[in-house]
Amino acid sequence: MKVSLKNHWVVKPSEPTWNGTVSLSETDQTYSVVHVPTTYYYRLICQDNSVTSIIKSSLSKALVHFYPLARRLRWIDGSRLEIDCDASGVVLTEAETDIKLDDLGRFSLSDPDHISLFPQIDYTVPISQLPLLFVQLTKFQCGAIAPSVAMSHAVADGQSALHFYSEWARLARGEPLMFAPFHDRKVLRAGEPAVASPTLSIYCIIHHQF
């Protein structure tokens, strides 16, 4: 299988967003600065080339709400990380492959053909310049598509990532946002004295946190 990269874009929020810094929780500080890849496969969903513009436009709208993903990490005193909210944007790549989806076979992370469907990330780039989100949209000869996402684990865990994918999909379908993300992480921050004291109510309230 041959995957050809056709276009690259830097996608930014479609509207102005809050400008400042977001502290990472103590748990976030312990994660390696790596991106976790996820890919989805969809058979032919439209007969024209509008899928790329839909992905690009809806991603830009989603970043208005999930604005930390459009930012960059930076070191504080060389030992702690925080998110610098400067709206640098995320990377979207359009790619094509020379096979049909049914030719792909059983998925395996050890198969270089499957790995080529994921965004390729250069970790030699300084962390202050490394995007937190990469997206690669690969088109198959049969019309199927494979949108693959690589998201920084320091910024979002699995549940938060799935929340983003779900809301992004809603916007792509022309639907309104259902659950807005919650960005305030101060309750998870350690301090002397403690920033917040744990109470039973914390464990009883169901909320969607990003």
UniProtKB/TrEMBL annotation:
Family (UniProt): Belongs to the plant acyltransferase family.
GO MF annotation list: acyltransferase activity, transferring groups other than amino-acyl groups
Protein name in the entry: Uncharacterized protein
Pfam families: Transferase (PF02458)
Domain of life: Eukaryota
Coiled coil: none
